[in-house]
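Final report, results section. Input specification for complex C-07:
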Amino acid sequence: MIDFELTRKDRELLEAIRREALVARSYARHYDENEHEFPPDELPEAKDFPSVFSLFAGRGKEDTGMGVISMLLTAGQTWGDYSVRMRRGKGGLGNAALRAAGTPAQQEKWKDLTLAMAITEPGCGSDPSAVQTTAVLDGEEWVLNGEKIFVTTGCRADGVVVWATVDKAAGRAGIKSFLVEKGTPGFIVAHKEKKLGIRADDTAAYVFKDCRIPRGNLLGGEEAIPKAGSGGFRGVMKTFNMTRPAVAAIGLGIAEAALDFTRDQLREAGVEVDYGAGIGGQSALVRRFQRLEALYEAAMLTVLHAAWLSDHGKPNNTEASIAKAKGGSAVREITQGCIEILGPLGVSREHLLEKWFRDVRITDIYEGTGQIQRLIIARDILGYSSSELR
Ligand SMILES: Cc1cc2nc3c(=O)[nH]c(=O)nc-3n(C[C@H](O)[C@H](O)[C@H](O)COP(=O)(O)OP(=O)(O)OC[C@H]3O[C@@H](n4cnc5c(N)ncnc54)[C@H](O)[C@@H]3O)c2cc1C
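Structure output:
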């Protein structure tokens, strides 16, 4: 039976995260207005707060599954701010790819690195089979050439999992992922991207110019190339089953902040959101607000469901995409709705609501747009392959 009831220990953990998040929020505007002045890895206040890892100690079987609690913790952090954290954890999307597709030896070798993941190119986004970056085997080295854009954690990362084709004629089957460490000659961080939202986040563009890496940096290893689930396309795509619900949770944390702010502002204006009043006893404005709250709840349940399936070792490909598709559209509707309810307060830079509206936009873009999630869901439900339904 699916049960999201939290134990006392889990509730304390989430409350602790919210206390940290409020401190992080006090830095949010500064780093939004000073794009590329990245927030520190640790805020000055960190010494006053116990590390989340210490709060995790002693969690047992009776506590909520790791997937579900991670989603709630993620949302709790972004409720404070998307980019500013009390302490920045190690790891990026590339680490999830390494876990999904690397051999045990590769996972061990690179486990301490923070890894970005670079798929997107100027001419390739939603359809990763169009990757133009090439990898050519030359003796004991792969030689990479190409360009990657919008790489999250691109500046901070110690290295990157980069998608390149070893055989353009082979389409998807020719695409492999390679680990390239920073400092490798020919691996250039070309520039930092300027963005609409999540402006304090580190997003970079890369160039690979005759970049030579050891033969063993092919994720999954060469002996695994012909097998499904290796460092090839399907293997690395598995990464997203774990990360897509988390992307939705990120956006929902921000949307919850917008709802809380709006509820507080309504209260200050003398408008109580009364959940006991019947449909005829509410103003249209309050009913609209309650619909936004219900949308938040529905979207969060899809996230927790996808995480719960993963916690129980069950397939969650469709549910991960449902969570991301639902979350991505819900957070836009919620933040836009809050702005409309509050009017000038919603767009004033004196407050963070306009920033939250900009910050949530990414939820529906990276790791597969909303349209692409709907394609995946349709394929899964109707039993079509990616070439039959595209
Ligand atoms: C802040 C930020 C961070 C990012 N981080 C990373 C990262 O770390 N690593 C990385 O590799 N990439 C990253 N990206 C890139 C992101 O994953 C891509 O922008 C995204 O996949 C969409 O690709 P595209 O922009 O090329 O759009 P396109 O693929 O050109 O799509 C344009 C539009 O057409 C729609 N569309 C495309 N194909 C279809 C279809 N078959 N059916 C219906 N609609 C379709 C799309 O949904 C979209 O609305 C990041 C982007 C941003 C903005």
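The CA atoms of residues 43 and 86 lie 5 Å apart. The chain has three domains: 8-80, 96-227, 239-382. This concludes the modelling results for the funded period.
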